[in-house]
Amino acid sequence: MTKWLTHALLVGLLYWVPGISLAAVAAPDVAMKDATLSSLETLWDFLDAPARPDGVGANEPWVHIDLLKRELVVYQGGIRLESIPYLAYGAAGSQAVRLQGSKQTPTGIFTIRRVNRNSKFRLFFGIDYPTPQIAQDAWKEGILSDKDYRYYLSYRKRHGIAPADTPLGGYIGIHGLGRSPLWIHRKRDWTAGCVAVTNAEILALNKWLDVGTKVVIRG
């Protein structure tokens, strides 16, 4: 019964999918069936897509990283542009306020601020960790001293990026393996806090990611 109701709901929703009619759903023609299945898959992706971050336009690519599922997806609106089904991250797990040397991956909403195309990890997309909000929270909680916080604000104002030499650390991003062996990547989490994918996968992301791209990390 549940499957029947789900199918009926999807067929009804297909009225809203451009170019697909109810006749196409019922038609026996193979090509039309393929088109219907493709539209259903697209519809499922759309319904299953996470909420787009504030400030990201409907036609603008953005990245959603689910550390628990070990999945990285590039979205445009609610449509998947690129999916990476496995990733490795910080050897010590994840944390919203990640400290220098903790080997944890930060969680939250970030923006790519730099791209290193000559990285030892093949390609590196650096995010703006710690963000101003994270730095402010850390200061209020006593993780950053008054001196550290003033330095953070001054550095960010002068350079447009966060410093990496406060107690919060930095140099966090998405990168490939470089010369690191694939078997380690598949066996355990091995990074100092970054999100790692294979060299081929990081090159595939290159066509979607750039300075300004939003990155959501959940864990």
Written overview of the protein:
The two termini are 34 Å apart. The chain is 33% helix and 21% strand. The protein has helices at residues 2-13, 22-26, 30-48, 132-140, 146-159, 182-187, 199-205; strands at 61-66, 71-76, 79-84, 94-95, 105-106, 108-116, 124-127, 173-175, 195-196, 214-218. The chain is α/β, with parallel strands linked by helices and 219 residues long. The radius of gyration is 21 Å and the shape is globular. It folds into two domains: 2-48, no CATH class; 61-129 and 169-218, L,D-transpeptidase catalytic domain-like (Beta Barrel).
Short description:
With 219 residues, this protein is α/β, with parallel strands linked by helices. It has helices spanning 2-13, 22-26, 30-48, 132-140, 146-159, 182-187, 199-205; strands spanning 61-66, 71-76, 79-84, 94-95, 105-106, 108-116, 124-127, 173-175, 195-196, 214-218.
Number of helices: 7
Radius of gyration: 21 Å
Q: Structural class, please?
A: alpha/beta
CATH H-level name of the largest domain... which superfamily? L,D-transpeptidase catalytic domain-like
Reading off the top of the CATH hierarchy, the class of the largest domain is best stated as Mainly Beta
Order of helices and strands: HHHEEEEEEEHHEHEHE
- Note poorly predicted spans: 1-11, 13-26
Helix content: 25-40%
Largest sheet data: 8 strands, mixed
